[in-house]
Amino acid sequence: MFGVATGAVADALISPSPTSSARHSAPGSRASPERPYAHAVSIVKINAITVPRERFDEFAERFASRAGRVSSADGFEAFELLRPNDDREVCLVMTQWRSEEDFRAWVSGPDFAAGHSQHREAGPVGTASELWSFDVLEREESAGA
């Protein structure tokens, strides 16, 4: 999902950005230094991968072939693979985690390495990628769900 994660690349994936480690309290919350939000906060990691349009199908197939690798990870909450339906060439790989520590443990573990073996064997499909990190402050789902 995040390309070959070795050396500096792996370090970049698991090192929080300067802004990701600073959490701010939601308005009106009773946050403390130990618990920066008054409620539990999940994190979302988005890997924005530039993929040439002619390789979209190959990109999707690679994810389908390793389905389930992340879902058993401790702290994993959700996964989505998004392909643009406009003229963009940036696909989004979104995962949601209970904590930054859970995400880091998965990136450092054997399932992450195994899931990315085809990247090492067949080369990357994407031409560039950027990892974004967000705190989930609010979520609303359909009342019918």
Rg from alpha-carbon coordinates = 16 Å
Low-confidence stretches: 1-32
Largest sheet: 4 strands, antiparallel
- Based on helices, strands and strand pairing, what is the structural class? alpha+beta
Number of strands: 4
Report the end-to-end length measured between terminal Cα atoms: 28 Å
CATH architecture label of the domain at 46-138: 2-Layer Sandwich
Question: What's the number of helices?
Answer: 5
pLDDT average, as an integer? 77
Report the oligomer: single chain
Helix content: 25-40%
CATH class of the domain at 46-138: Alpha Beta
Here the CATH topology of the domain at 46-138 equals Alpha-Beta Plaits
Widest β-sheet, arrangement of strands: 2-3-1-4
Notes on the protein architecture:
The chain has 145 residues and is an alpha+beta fold. The chain has a domain at 46-138: Alpha-Beta Plaits (2-Layer Sandwich). It is built from five helices and four strands; from the N terminus they run αβαββαααβ. The chain has a four-stranded antiparallel sheet with strand order 2-3-1-4.
